[in-house]
UniProtKB/TrEMBL annotation:
InterPro entries: VanZ-like (IPR006976). It comes from the Bacteria. Residues 90-148 form the VanZ-like domain. It comes from Lacipirellula parvula. Signal peptide: none annotated. Pfam families: VanZ. This is VanZ-like domain-containing protein. The chain crosses the membrane at residues 42-59, 71-88, 100-118, 130-147.
Amino acid sequence: MANPLSDLSQLANFKMHDSSPPPNDRSPRESRFRRIASRARTLAIFYFLLLFAGTHIPSVGHSGPSFNDKWAHFGGYLVLTLCILAGWELTIGRLHARHYFAVWLAGVVYGAFDEWTQIPVGRTCDMNDWAADAMGVLSGIILYQLFRPMLFAVVSVSEEDLDKRD
């Protein structure tokens, strides 16, 4: 017959889960890489929110020289695209054509949504602004492709590191 006190002592020593911290098997390089990826994602989110807020502030009359806002639309979406692509590639690994297409499609659709939702706050919904947004997204994708080797040299990430994340 089993000893009930023995069973109770085993039950008292039983742990529902392992409370010891997981072993740190990440190298300092991997930890740095993860920090940079996290910061890139945070920057993309912050910039997106800033862009949204900036385009939905009610319009006030401009008393100074006329301002062609097409360059602001173009530049805003170009920078947003660069931030999203860098954050995404540093997080998941090498981006493929479908990823670039998804960023292009999301940028173009969001640009249209952004223009449309400016009407309730007294701003103008302008197809030329949307075209500048779309050109900014496309230019951001092209520039990212051209300068991504430089980005990865700066953050000390090799093509092999990206392939490991796939």
